[in-house]
Amino acid sequence: MTDSLRAALKELRLSGALESLDVRLHEAAGHNLNHAEFLELLVRDELAVRSDRQLRRRVKAAQFREARTLEDFDWSFNPSIKRSQVYDLATCRFVREAKDVLLIGPPGVGKSHLVQAIGYQAIKCGHAVLYRSIFDLIRDFLQDEAVGGEDKVVARYLKPDLLVIDDMGMKQLPKRSGEYLFEIVMRRYETRSTVMTSNRPLEDWGKLLGDVPSATAILDRFLHHAETIAITGRSYRLRNRGTKTEEPARGGETASPARGDASGGRKPKAEEPARGSDGESPERNESLSGADA
Protein backbone atom coordinates (compact mmCIF):
# COMPACT_ATOMS: atom_id res chain seq x y z
CA MET A 1 0.00 0.00 0.00
CA THR A 2 1.42 3.39 -0.97
CA ASP A 3 1.63 6.29 1.47
CA SER A 4 -0.62 8.39 -0.76
CA LEU A 5 -3.33 5.70 -0.75
CA ARG A 6 -3.08 5.36 3.02
CA ALA A 7 -3.41 9.12 3.41
CA ALA A 8 -6.40 9.21 1.05
CA LEU A 9 -8.22 6.48 2.98
CA LYS A 10 -7.58 8.32 6.25
CA GLU A 11 -8.87 11.57 4.77
CA LEU A 12 -12.03 9.79 3.63
CA ARG A 13 -12.32 8.20 7.09
CA LEU A 14 -12.41 4.72 5.60
CA SER A 15 -10.73 3.08 8.58
CA GLY A 16 -12.29 -0.33 7.87
CA ALA A 17 -10.90 -0.40 4.36
CA LEU A 18 -7.56 0.88 5.59
CA GLU A 19 -7.24 -1.89 8.17
CA SER A 20 -8.08 -4.70 5.76
CA LEU A 21 -6.56 -3.43 2.51
CA ASP A 22 -3.26 -5.36 2.74
CA VAL A 23 -5.10 -8.61 3.51
CA ARG A 24 -7.56 -8.07 0.68
CA LEU A 25 -4.74 -7.29 -1.79
CA HIS A 26 -3.06 -10.59 -0.97
CA GLU A 27 -6.42 -12.38 -1.21
CA ALA A 28 -7.13 -10.82 -4.58
CA ALA A 29 -3.72 -11.85 -5.93
CA GLY A 30 -3.93 -15.39 -4.51
CA HIS A 31 -7.46 -16.10 -5.73
CA ASN A 32 -7.42 -14.13 -8.97
CA LEU A 33 -10.24 -11.83 -7.90
CA ASN A 34 -11.40 -9.30 -10.46
CA HIS A 35 -11.65 -5.61 -9.65
CA ALA A 36 -15.33 -5.72 -8.75
CA GLU A 37 -14.90 -8.69 -6.36
CA PHE A 38 -11.93 -7.03 -4.67
CA LEU A 39 -13.82 -3.74 -4.26
CA GLU A 40 -16.89 -5.51 -2.86
CA LEU A 41 -14.78 -7.19 -0.15
CA LEU A 42 -13.19 -3.89 0.77
CA VAL A 43 -16.55 -2.10 0.97
CA ARG A 44 -17.98 -4.87 3.16
CA ASP A 45 -15.02 -4.53 5.52
CA GLU A 46 -15.72 -0.83 5.85
CA LEU A 47 -19.42 -1.40 6.49
CA ALA A 48 -18.66 -4.01 9.16
CA VAL A 49 -16.36 -1.63 11.02
CA ARG A 50 -18.91 1.19 10.85
CA SER A 51 -21.72 -1.07 12.04
CA ASP A 52 -19.66 -2.25 15.01
CA ARG A 53 -18.70 1.32 15.87
CA GLN A 54 -22.33 2.46 15.69
CA LEU A 55 -23.42 -0.45 17.92
CA ARG A 56 -20.87 0.49 20.56
CA ARG A 57 -21.95 4.14 20.45
CA ARG A 58 -25.63 3.24 20.86
CA VAL A 59 -24.93 0.84 23.71
CA LYS A 60 -22.97 3.56 25.50
CA ALA A 61 -25.76 6.09 24.90
CA ALA A 62 -28.34 3.64 26.28
CA GLN A 63 -26.63 3.78 29.70
CA PHE A 64 -27.34 0.18 30.63
CA ARG A 65 -26.44 -0.69 34.20
CA GLU A 66 -24.77 -3.88 33.01
CA ALA A 67 -24.11 -5.57 29.69
CA ARG A 68 -26.81 -8.25 29.48
CA THR A 69 -27.87 -10.66 26.74
CA LEU A 70 -30.59 -13.29 26.46
CA GLU A 71 -27.93 -15.93 25.89
CA ASP A 72 -26.55 -15.23 29.39
CA PHE A 73 -29.92 -15.70 31.11
CA ASP A 74 -30.52 -18.84 33.18
CA TRP A 75 -33.90 -19.94 31.86
CA SER A 76 -34.01 -23.08 34.02
CA PHE A 77 -33.95 -21.27 37.38
CA ASN A 78 -37.45 -19.77 37.22
CA PRO A 79 -39.54 -21.88 34.80
CA SER A 80 -42.44 -19.40 35.08
CA ILE A 81 -40.65 -17.21 32.53
CA LYS A 82 -41.82 -18.08 29.03
CA ARG A 83 -38.75 -18.05 26.79
CA SER A 84 -40.83 -17.83 23.62
CA GLN A 85 -42.61 -14.73 24.90
CA VAL A 86 -39.33 -12.99 25.74
CA TYR A 87 -37.71 -13.93 22.44
CA ASP A 88 -40.76 -12.61 20.63
CA LEU A 89 -40.14 -9.26 22.35
CA ALA A 90 -36.49 -9.49 21.27
CA THR A 91 -37.63 -9.35 17.63
CA CYS A 92 -38.62 -5.75 18.46
CA ARG A 93 -41.93 -5.96 16.67
CA PHE A 94 -43.47 -4.21 19.68
CA VAL A 95 -41.01 -1.32 19.19
CA ARG A 96 -41.97 -0.95 15.55
CA GLU A 97 -45.63 -0.98 16.57
CA ALA A 98 -45.05 1.56 19.40
CA LYS A 99 -46.44 -0.81 22.04
CA ASP A 100 -45.40 -1.07 25.69
CA VAL A 101 -44.29 -3.88 28.00
CA LEU A 102 -44.56 -4.37 31.76
CA LEU A 103 -42.54 -6.98 33.68
CA ILE A 104 -43.86 -7.47 37.20
CA GLY A 105 -42.64 -9.77 39.95
CA PRO A 106 -40.55 -9.99 43.14
CA PRO A 107 -36.92 -8.86 43.32
CA GLY A 108 -34.21 -11.10 41.97
CA VAL A 109 -36.20 -13.05 39.37
CA GLY A 110 -34.42 -11.48 36.40
CA LYS A 111 -36.54 -8.52 35.33
CA SER A 112 -33.62 -6.11 35.02
CA HIS A 113 -31.54 -8.66 33.14
CA LEU A 114 -34.34 -9.30 30.67
CA VAL A 115 -35.21 -5.66 29.94
CA GLN A 116 -31.55 -4.76 29.40
CA ALA A 117 -31.11 -7.77 27.11
CA ILE A 118 -34.21 -6.77 25.14
CA GLY A 119 -32.86 -3.23 24.96
CA TYR A 120 -29.57 -4.55 23.59
CA GLN A 121 -31.44 -6.53 20.92
CA ALA A 122 -33.37 -3.37 20.02
CA ILE A 123 -30.07 -1.56 19.46
CA LYS A 124 -28.88 -4.39 17.21
CA CYS A 125 -32.10 -3.95 15.25
CA GLY A 126 -31.21 -0.31 14.69
CA HIS A 127 -33.33 1.36 17.37
CA ALA A 128 -32.24 4.10 19.76
CA VAL A 129 -32.60 2.98 23.39
CA LEU A 130 -32.42 4.69 26.79
CA TYR A 131 -32.29 2.76 30.05
CA ARG A 132 -33.02 4.52 33.35
CA SER A 133 -34.21 3.42 36.75
CA ILE A 134 -37.27 5.26 38.05
CA PHE A 135 -34.96 6.94 40.57
CA ASP A 136 -32.65 8.18 37.79
CA LEU A 137 -35.65 9.53 35.91
CA ILE A 138 -36.97 11.49 38.87
CA ARG A 139 -33.49 12.76 39.72
CA ASP A 140 -33.01 13.97 36.14
CA PHE A 141 -36.22 15.99 36.34
CA LEU A 142 -35.45 17.44 39.76
CA GLN A 143 -31.93 18.49 38.77
CA ASP A 144 -32.92 20.04 35.45
CA GLU A 145 -35.96 21.72 36.95
CA ALA A 146 -33.69 23.42 39.47
CA VAL A 147 -31.71 25.05 36.65
CA GLY A 148 -34.64 25.66 34.34
CA GLY A 149 -33.88 22.82 31.95
CA GLU A 150 -37.05 20.75 32.24
CA ASP A 151 -37.82 20.96 28.51
CA LYS A 152 -34.39 19.51 27.74
CA VAL A 153 -34.86 16.47 29.97
CA VAL A 154 -38.35 15.85 28.57
CA ALA A 155 -36.90 15.88 25.05
CA ARG A 156 -34.24 13.41 26.11
CA TYR A 157 -36.88 10.94 27.31
CA LEU A 158 -39.11 11.39 24.27
CA LYS A 159 -36.39 10.83 21.66
CA PRO A 160 -35.47 7.10 21.97
CA ASP A 161 -37.46 4.48 20.09
CA LEU A 162 -37.41 2.37 23.26
CA LEU A 163 -37.35 3.74 26.80
CA VAL A 164 -36.70 1.26 29.62
CA ILE A 165 -37.79 2.39 33.12
CA ASP A 166 -36.53 -0.04 35.74
CA ASP A 167 -36.97 -0.49 39.51
CA MET A 168 -40.52 0.73 40.05
CA GLY A 169 -41.88 -0.28 43.40
CA MET A 170 -39.34 -0.46 46.23
CA LYS A 171 -40.38 2.65 48.16
CA GLN A 172 -42.42 5.83 47.91
CA LEU A 173 -41.04 8.35 45.45
CA PRO A 174 -40.53 12.10 46.01
CA LYS A 175 -43.23 14.69 45.59
CA ARG A 176 -44.21 15.43 41.97
CA SER A 177 -42.83 12.07 40.78
CA GLY A 178 -46.28 11.20 39.46
CA GLU A 179 -46.33 14.37 37.37
CA TYR A 180 -42.93 13.65 35.83
CA LEU A 181 -43.71 10.03 35.01
CA PHE A 182 -47.11 10.94 33.62
CA GLU A 183 -45.50 13.54 31.34
CA ILE A 184 -43.23 10.89 29.85
CA VAL A 185 -45.87 8.15 29.51
CA MET A 186 -48.49 10.52 28.09
CA ARG A 187 -46.19 11.99 25.43
CA ARG A 188 -44.75 8.63 24.38
CA TYR A 189 -48.21 7.04 24.25
CA GLU A 190 -48.82 5.44 20.82
CA THR A 191 -45.71 7.11 19.36
CA ARG A 192 -42.76 5.36 21.08
CA SER A 193 -42.35 2.14 23.07
CA THR A 194 -41.76 2.02 26.82
CA VAL A 195 -40.78 -0.97 28.95
CA MET A 196 -41.19 -0.85 32.72
CA THR A 197 -40.42 -3.25 35.58
CA SER A 198 -42.18 -3.28 38.94
CA ASN A 199 -41.73 -5.15 42.20
CA ARG A 200 -45.17 -4.11 43.44
CA PRO A 201 -48.72 -4.74 42.23
CA LEU A 202 -50.31 -2.01 40.17
CA GLU A 203 -52.75 -1.04 42.90
CA ASP A 204 -49.78 0.15 45.00
CA TRP A 205 -48.54 2.64 42.41
CA GLY A 206 -50.74 5.44 43.76
CA LYS A 207 -49.07 5.12 47.15
CA LEU A 208 -45.58 4.85 45.64
CA LEU A 209 -46.08 7.99 43.58
CA GLY A 210 -47.97 9.79 46.33
CA ASP A 211 -50.51 10.76 43.69
CA VAL A 212 -53.41 8.40 42.99
CA PRO A 213 -54.90 10.43 40.08
CA SER A 214 -51.52 10.53 38.31
CA ALA A 215 -50.97 6.82 38.89
CA THR A 216 -54.41 6.06 37.45
CA ALA A 217 -53.74 8.19 34.38
CA ILE A 218 -50.30 6.64 33.89
CA LEU A 219 -51.63 3.09 34.03
CA ASP A 220 -54.61 3.94 31.82
CA ARG A 221 -52.30 4.94 28.98
CA PHE A 222 -49.40 2.62 29.63
CA LEU A 223 -51.48 -0.55 29.87
CA HIS A 224 -53.69 0.26 26.86
CA HIS A 225 -51.30 -1.35 24.38
CA ALA A 226 -48.98 -3.07 26.85
CA GLU A 227 -47.98 -6.70 27.08
CA THR A 228 -47.70 -7.78 30.73
CA ILE A 229 -45.28 -10.47 31.85
CA ALA A 230 -45.77 -11.71 35.42
CA ILE A 231 -42.74 -13.53 36.83
CA THR A 232 -42.76 -15.69 39.95
CA GLY A 233 -40.05 -17.65 41.72
CA ARG A 234 -37.01 -17.28 43.93
CA SER A 235 -34.26 -14.70 43.80
CA TYR A 236 -31.48 -15.88 41.48
CA ARG A 237 -28.83 -14.12 43.56
CA LEU A 238 -29.83 -16.10 46.65
CA ARG A 239 -29.94 -19.48 44.88
CA ASN A 240 -26.96 -20.83 46.84
CA ARG A 241 -28.12 -19.65 50.26
CA GLY A 242 -29.76 -22.03 52.67
CA THR A 243 -31.98 -19.36 54.20
CA LYS A 244 -35.19 -17.70 53.14
CA THR A 245 -34.13 -14.38 54.62
CA GLU A 246 -33.43 -12.04 51.72
CA GLU A 247 -31.08 -9.09 51.85
CA PRO A 248 -30.02 -6.37 49.41
CA ALA A 249 -27.84 -7.88 46.71
CA ARG A 250 -24.62 -6.19 45.67
CA GLY A 251 -24.75 -4.40 42.34
CA GLY A 252 -28.27 -5.48 41.55
CA GLU A 253 -31.84 -5.63 42.71
CA THR A 254 -32.90 -5.29 46.29
CA ALA A 255 -33.88 -8.74 47.42
CA SER A 256 -36.56 -7.98 50.05
CA PRO A 257 -39.94 -9.24 48.81
CA ALA A 258 -42.54 -6.53 48.24
CA ARG A 259 -45.74 -6.47 50.27
CA GLY A 260 -48.70 -7.78 48.33
CA ASP A 261 -46.51 -8.47 45.31
CA ALA A 262 -48.52 -9.50 42.24
CA SER A 263 -46.33 -12.55 41.86
CA GLY A 264 -47.09 -13.94 45.31
CA GLY A 265 -44.17 -12.62 47.42
CA ARG A 266 -44.83 -12.56 51.18
CA LYS A 267 -44.55 -9.49 53.34
CA PRO A 268 -41.03 -9.21 54.83
CA LYS A 269 -40.51 -9.17 58.57
CA ALA A 270 -38.14 -6.23 58.37
CA GLU A 271 -37.32 -3.96 55.50
CA GLU A 272 -33.72 -2.92 55.11
CA PRO A 273 -32.75 0.41 53.53
CA ALA A 274 -32.38 0.18 49.78
CA ARG A 275 -29.47 1.75 47.96
CA GLY A 276 -29.95 4.00 44.97
CA SER A 277 -28.69 3.30 41.52
CA ASP A 278 -25.97 5.89 42.15
CA GLY A 279 -24.78 4.04 45.27
CA GLU A 280 -25.94 6.72 47.72
CA SER A 281 -27.60 5.71 50.96
CA PRO A 282 -31.11 6.88 51.90
CA GLU A 283 -29.60 9.24 54.50
CA ARG A 284 -27.73 11.11 51.74
CA ASN A 285 -30.41 10.93 49.09
CA GLU A 286 -33.55 9.93 50.95
CA SER A 287 -36.05 10.67 48.26
CA LEU A 288 -34.19 9.07 45.39
CA SER A 289 -32.71 5.82 46.69
CA GLY A 290 -33.81 2.69 44.91
CA ALA A 291 -33.04 -0.81 43.97
CA ASP A 292 -32.67 -2.91 40.90
CA ALA A 293 -35.90 -4.62 39.88
Automatic annotation (TrEMBL):
GO annotation terms (biological process): DNA replication
One Pfam family cited in the UniProt record for this chain: IstB_IS21
Biased composition (Basic and acidic residues): 268-286
Region listing for Disordered, in residue ranges: 240-293
Domain AAA+ ATPase: 97-232
Matching CDD domains: AAA (cd00009)
Domain of life: Bacteria
GO molecular function: ATP binding
Family annotation (InterPro entries): AAA+_ATPase (IPR003593), DNAC/IstB-like (IPR028350), IstB (IPR047661), IstB_ATP-bd (IPR002611), P-loop_NTPase (IPR027417)
Keyword annotations of the record: ATP-binding, Nucleotide-binding
NCBIfam families the UniProt entry points to: IS21_help_AAA
Family: Belongs to the IS21/IS1162 putative ATP-binding protein family.
Protein name: Mobile element protein
Organism name: Fimbriiglobus ruber
